[in-house]
Amino acid sequence: MLIQIITLLCVLGIATGQILFKLSAKSLDQTHSFFAPKTAAILFAALALYGITTLAWVWVLQKAELGRVYPLMALAFILVPLGSYLVFDERFQIQYFVGVALIMVGIVVTVRA
Question: Domain range for residue 54?
Answer without folding.
Answer: 2-112
